[in-house]
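Q: What structure does this chain adopt?
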Amino acid sequence: MTGVVPINLAWYGYIFATIFYTAFLSFNKKKVLAAIAYWVLIAAVVAHTVFQIGRFHDYYLQHNTLVVVPASQFEAISFFAWIIAIVYAVFEPISKFRAMGALVVAIPTIMMAYVTLALPPEASNLRPLMPALKSPWLNIHVMAMFISYGAFAVAFAFALAYIFKANNLLPVKAFGLDDLDRISYNLVSFGFPFITFGIITGAIWANAAWGTYWGWDPKETSALITWLIYAAFLHTRVTMGWKGTRSAMFNIIGFAAVLFTFIGVNFLPGLHSYIKS
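A:
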C-alpha cells in the first residue's frame, strides 16, 4: 500500500480546507479564514503530489518505464481528485474568487473519502500493467484528458453555484451571477483544447497499441460525445450569445458526460474496462 501516509494527509488536508472555506463564507468573509483554507489546500496538494511521485517511481521500478496512467479505480479517482485540487489551487489566486473554495474543494474531499473508506485496503496496491499501458503516447493522452476533466469539474462547480444563486438558494452575497457565468465559461475554454488534444493523442496511441485509430470502444465513443457537448457549449456561447441559466445547464450536462466517460463506461465491455476494479 504505497504512499498511505501522504494520501491520508492529502485527504485530511482537503477536509480541513473545505471546513475553512465554509467558515470563510459563514463568518462574513473573514480573509484570514480564506488564507488559512488556501494554504491548507496547498499542503494537501503537496502531500498528494508526494504520493503521485512515489507511485510513478514504484511503477518505474516494477516495469522500467514511466507510467502516469491510472491502472486501477483507486488510482484513477485519486488522480482525478489531485488534478481538480491543482486546477483550483492555481486558479484561485488568479481569479481572486476565494468564495468558491467551499464548493470546489468539496469535490476532491468526497472523491478521496470514497477511495479511502469505500474501497478495500488492497485497492491501493500496484497493479500489473498490460503492454498497451507502457506507451509514452498513453501518458500524454491521460494527462491531457485529466487536465480537461479537472477544468470541467471546477467549471461545473461554478455553474452549479450559478443555478443555486439564480434561484436564491445561496444565502451569502459572495457570488455574483455575472462572475460565476464568466468564470465557468473561461474554465471550459481552458479545458476544451486539452480534451481535443487528448482525444487526438488517444487515437495515435490506439493505432500504435491496437492497429486502429478509432474502434468505437465505449470509452472512445463517450469521450467523443463529451467533446461534442462542450463544443456545442462554446458554439452556442460565441455565436448565439447563450449565457446565464441555459449556459450553466449546458455546463452541468457536459460534466455529467465527463463522469460517465470517467466512471460509467468502465463497467461496459471494452478495451478500457481494466480500470473498473
